[in-house]
């Protein structure tokens, strides 16, 4: 067993060292803020596609989603359907227009800067509001990634969660601090490839070992709610029929894509429309395969790991979110002594975690350094000063997220859900209408961002509804808990309505804004 851990440690060490080397390489090539935040707009199609999707899916893809399917059944796969639809929509209808518009809008380097320039916000109100929203929700999002990393190290090496959390956070911090956007995108490209290989190969091998004819029997023996037929029915969850509210909530995850700063920034950085078109096809295929096989991991993992059941008996301290980790450990390390290979596949989970955390840190840094510091506080700041502030911000955000993640009971799924809803509701409708509706104006954009963000916060955190707990005790619950409706679904609609109404009752956009909009529609490069 000791030898196994050593080989896995070697695999992890080699992988993390490679990430740091990449960060050091690009540190010397980062000359200004455009290099640090957008890589000089020189991303090729493959890197743009895989880095966007890798930074999107996070540890949720290989821990949260398989874990929920493992525990409750394929009814949890409605999230995958929503995310796939959202991914396709984002690449087909947002990416090209956003890339062109950010160039036309005074070469905007960040999402807040784009909104400021798009709506000719001389007072920088949009810049400040959107930067604050990014910092708040990315703190939660980054914490989810660090939590997933801590759980991975703790599960694989049996170390204390806090020590594991510290190791993962330090590696991510080092290469993001050094290399900026190109280091993040290059590492994300490697990580996206590793994630795809792992998510395809592991369940296929486990499925072959279990045997196609044994899946249903093993699922029944494992005690899934409602039996295997219910477990494998996408219209049922935990043995019960899914409701319309449930399906709407799960599909609503797809709405989040229009407002994710760490994904949208990839569109802005692609070198040309030709490369962007290549990215679209690559990204859509990647996400279709990854989401499908993440669901399969949950199903096959339930059968493959039986008679061991995560969360019960000897595995009572291991949550269902660790199903992929336990499959790899049992398949490659415990049974077949392919320790280094098992370590590489476990690095796929680490890749999913790191590829999102690094992007979140970088976008948070851009919101503070480029948008707040240079945009508002010190407009004449030199690039060297902005870079220094950016790197300092990366450290501060990482430390704050680390503090949030110190609780080992934090749910990866729960933290991601809250942050995803916040970004989707705050920015999604504003970005969408900024690209497709000429009449949208500055007051409408402000109203949309504020109303979307506040709706999510009130829906998820304000306990105002009277209810009772399982013991019959009177308690207060949130609107989200009471209705079962995902806050993103309601927040997106509220934001959209506010943008349209406020834009229509206030002054029309200027002729200059209309001319820029028309130029965006007609220009291609």
Structure in words:
By secondary structure, the protein is mainly α. It has a single domain (2-408), classed as Sodium/glucose cotransporter. 75% of the residues lie in helices and 3% in strands. It has 20 helices and four strands. It has helices at 2-27, 33-38, 45-72, 78-104, 111-118, 125-157, 161-210, 215-221, 227-231, 244-251, 261-269, 273-305, 323-334, 339-377, 383-405, 412-436, 442-461, 479-483, 487-505, 511-522, and strands at 236-237, 240-241, 463-468, 474-478. Strands 1-2 form a two-stranded antiparallel ribbon. A hairpin with a 2-residue loop joins strand 1 (236-237) and strand 2. Helix 1 runs parallel beside helix 14 (339-377) and helix 4 packs across helix 11 (261-269). The longest helix has 50 residues, at 161-210. The radius of gyration is 23 Å and the shape is globular. The mean pLDDT is 84.
Shape: globular
CATH architecture: Up-down Bundle
Strand order, main sheet: write it out.
1-2
Structural class computed from helices and strand pairing: mainly alpha
| Rg value | 23 Å
Give the DSSP E fraction (strand runs of 2 or more residues): under 5%
SS element count, helices: 20
Sketch the topology as an H/E string, one letter per element: HHHHHHHHHEEHHHHHHHHEEHHH
Can you say what the CATH homologous superfamily is?
A: Sodium/glucose cotransporter
Helix fraction bin = over 70%
Q: What is the averaged pLDDT score?
A: 84
Strand tally is: 4
What is the CATH first-level class name?
Mainly Alpha
Uncertain stretches: none
The CATH topology label is Sodium/glucose cotransporter
Biggest sheet features: 2 strands, antiparallel
Task: State the separation between the terminal residues, measured CA to CA.
Answer: 57 Å
């Amino acid at each position: 067993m000791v030898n196994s851990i050593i080989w896995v440690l070697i695999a992890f060490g080699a992988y993390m060292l490679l990430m740091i080397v990449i960060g050091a390489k690009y540190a010397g090539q980062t000359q200004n803020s455009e290099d640090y935040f957008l890589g000089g707009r020189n991303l090729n199609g493959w890197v743009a596609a895989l880095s966007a999707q890798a930074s999107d899916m996070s540890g949720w893809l290989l821990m949260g989603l398989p874990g929920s399917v493992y525990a409750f059944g394929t009814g949890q796969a409605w999230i995958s359907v929503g995310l796939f639809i959202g991914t396709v929509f984002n690449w087909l209808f947002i990416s090209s227009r956003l890339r062109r518009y950010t160039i036309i809008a005074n070469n905007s380097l960040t999402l807040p800067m784009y909104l400021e320039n798009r709506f000719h916000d001389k007072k920088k109100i949009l810049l400040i509001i959107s930067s604050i929203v990014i910092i708040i929700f990315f703190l939660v999002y980054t914490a989810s990634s660090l939590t997933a990393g801590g759980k991975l190290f703790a599960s694989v090496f049996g170390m204390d969660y806090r020590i594991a959390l510290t190791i993962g956070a330090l590696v991510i911090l080092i290469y993001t601090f050094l290399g900026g956007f190109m280091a993040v995108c290059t590492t994300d490209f490697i990580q996206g490839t590793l994630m795809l290989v792992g998510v395809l190969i592991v369940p296929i091998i486990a499925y072959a070992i279990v045997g196609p004819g044994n899946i249903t029997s093993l699922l029944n023996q494992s005690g899934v709610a409602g039996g295997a037929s219910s477990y494998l029915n996408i219209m049922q969850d935990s043995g019960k029929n899914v409701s319309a509210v449930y399906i709407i909530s799960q599909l609503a995850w797809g709405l989040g894509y229009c407002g994710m700063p760490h994904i949208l920034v990839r569109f802005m950085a692609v070198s040309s429309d030709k490369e962007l078109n290549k990215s679209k096809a690559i990204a859509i295929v990647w996400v279709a395969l990854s989401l499908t096989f993440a669901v399969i991991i949950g199903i096959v993992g339930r059968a493959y790991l039986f008679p061991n059941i995560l969360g019960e008996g000897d595995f009572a301290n291991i949550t269902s979110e660790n199903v992929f980790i336990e499959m790899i450990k049992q398949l490659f390390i415990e049974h077949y002594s392919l320790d280094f290979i098992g370590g590489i596949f476990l690095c796929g989970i680490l890749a999913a975690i790191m590829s999102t955390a690094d992007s979140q840190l970088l976008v948070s840094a851009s919101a503070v350094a480029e948008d707040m510091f240079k945009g508002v506080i010190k407009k004449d700041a030199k690039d060297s000063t902005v870079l220094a502030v950016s790197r300092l911000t990366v450290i501060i955000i990482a430390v704050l997220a680390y503090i949030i993640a110190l609780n080992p009971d934090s749910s990866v799924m729960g933290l991601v859900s809250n942050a995803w809803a916040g970004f989707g509701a705050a920015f999604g409708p504003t970005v969408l209408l900024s690209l497709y509706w000429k009449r949208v104006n500055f007051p409408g954009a402000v109203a949309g961002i504020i109303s979307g963000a506040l709706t999510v916060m009130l829906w998820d955190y304000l306990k105002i509804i009277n209810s009772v707990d399982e013991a019959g005790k009177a308690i207060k619950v949130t609107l989200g808990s009471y209705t079962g409706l995902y806050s993103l679904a309601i927040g997106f609609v509220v934001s959209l309505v506010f943008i349209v109404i406020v834009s229509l009752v206030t002054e029309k956009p200027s002729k200059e804004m209309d001319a820029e909009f028309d130029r965006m529609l007609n220009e291609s490069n």
